Amino acid sequence: GAGVSQSPRYKVTKRGQDVALRCDPISGHVSLYWYRQALGQGPEFLTYFNYEAQQDKSGLPNDRFSAERPEGSISTLTIQRTEQRDSAMYRCASSPFVIVLAGTDTQYFGPGTRLTVL
Amino acid sequence: QKEVEQNSGPLSVPEGAIASLNCTYSDRGSQSFFWYRQYSGKSPELIMSIYSNGDKEDGRFTAQLNKASQYVSLLIRDSQPSDSATYLCAVGTTAGGTSYGKLTFGQGTILTVHP
Fold this sequence. Notes:
Distance between the termini of chain A: 37 Å
Number of strands of chain B: 11
Number of strands of chain A: 11
Oligomer: heterodimer
Helix content of chain B: under 10%
Shape of chain A: globular
Strand content of chain B: over 45%
Radius of gyration of chain B: 14 Å
Number of helices of chain A: 0
Radius of gyration of chain A: 14 Å
Shape of chain B: globular
Number of helices of chain B: 0
Structural class of chain A: mainly beta
Strand content of chain A: over 45%
Distance between the termini of chain B: 37 Å
Largest sheet of chain A: 7 strands, mixed
C-alpha cells in the first residue's frame, strides 16, 4: 500500500515568508508525528497527534511553528516568518496505534520536506 | 546531558565482521527501544525494537537491552557493504507505565562496511 507522503519535497523560501508543509499518513494510521532533522543529527521531535487531537507540542521551537490535523488524517506544519535557522529536513511519521505494544510496529517515516530559507 | 547518546563514529568494519553499535539513555522509566537504519538521503527505517532485558535476534541483527545500566546495543553479524548507513537509536516515551510513540533519537552512528 501507499506509504507516508509529504509535500512539497523541496521548499526554498525567503526569510520572513510563511511556509506550509503537508503530511499525508498511511491510511488508517491514528497517530502522526512531526520531526525535524538537521544534517548529521537524529530526528528531533516537534509535535504529535492522536486522531485530530494535538497531544504534545513541547518540541515546537517557538510560537512561529504550529501544526494541525483537523480531520484526523492529513496534517499541516506551518512556519510563520521563516528564519535561516529553520532550514532543515522536516519529517513526518505515522503509526497505527496510540500505544506502543511489544510486537507491534511503530512508526513509518515519510520522505521528508527539505526546507531552505534564504 | 543528552537524553539518548550513541557511541561516536564513524565506525568502519570489514565485510563479514561483527559491527557493534551502542546507545545509552537517561530516563530510567523508559520501556521501548528502537534501532533505525538511515541510508544517505533517505528516511529512517525501523530494523529492530526491544522492550525486555536481554537479547532479541532477527536474522543478522541482535538487539541487547540492559535497563539497569540504561544501555541498548545493536550487533550486526556478517556485515555486508549494504549495511553501510547511519544507525539511529531511539527511545519511546513512557508515562504512567504506558509507552507512546513519541521518540527521542540519538545523534546516529555512521557505519561503513568495506569489502
